[in-house]
Automatic annotation (TrEMBL):
<dbReference type="InterPro" id="IPR008814">
    <property type="entry name" value="Swp1"/>
</dbReference>
<dbReference type="GO" id="GO:0006487">
    <property type="term" value="P:protein N-linked glycosylation"/>
</dbReference>
<keyword id="KW-0732">Signal</keyword>
<keyword id="KW-0812">Transmembrane</keyword>
<feature type="transmembrane region" description="Helical">
    <location>
        <begin position="60"/>
        <end position="82"/>
    </location>
</feature>
<feature type="domain" description="Ribophorin II C-terminal">
    <location>
        <begin position="47"/>
        <end position="147"/>
    </location>
</feature>
<dbReference type="Pfam" id="PF25147">
    <property type="entry name" value="Ribophorin_II_C"/>
</dbReference>
<keyword id="KW-0256">Endoplasmic reticulum</keyword>
<feature type="transmembrane region" description="Helical">
    <location>
        <begin position="126"/>
        <end position="143"/>
    </location>
</feature>
<keyword id="KW-1133">Transmembrane helix</keyword>
<keyword id="KW-0472">Membrane</keyword>
<dbReference type="GO" id="GO:0008250">
    <property type="term" value="C:oligosaccharyltransferase complex"/>
</dbReference>
<dbReference type="InterPro" id="IPR056790">
    <property type="entry name" value="Ribophorin_II_C"/>
</dbReference>
<protein>
    <recommendedName>
        <fullName>Ribophorin II C-terminal domain-containing protein</fullName>
    </recommendedName>
</protein>
<feature type="transmembrane region" description="Helical">
    <location>
        <begin position="94"/>
        <end position="114"/>
    </location>
</feature>
Amino acid sequence: MENSFLRALGQLELDLPEAPEKAPRPPAQAVDPLAKFRPQKEIEHIFRVPEKRPLQEVSLAFTGLTLLPFIGFLIGLMRLGVNLKNFPSLPGPAAFASLFHAGIAAVLLLYVLFWVKLDLFTTLKYLSFLGVFLVFVGHRTLSHLSNTTAKQKTA
């Protein structure tokens, strides 16, 4: 430090008892007072051995088992017949409704990528962008559906 100063503030006398006979002696202090600010030797860490993981085939099999209810849901929708009578027919609102459904599919795909590849913070970052997109597009779609049903009730 260029503008530092050194000033004696007082004097201190210590009356310490003698060290026990078998006590180890502290190492001799460095003569150079700036020696403690020099680079120290590198610290080597010892990490524990990572836990064993199951085979990739076992993990993929359990992932498939978790997807079975979703596949059953899709098959049930096809058997029941999906009700598309409220889906917008005009090009603008139909585009927003399609984008909304594509956004929901993107969120589901993001969940799968989280299980397979991504970490939590990356997933949350992507999910925040998708969430803003879905709020905008979903609001437009629901506004159109609300206006359509209001017109049908008054007519």
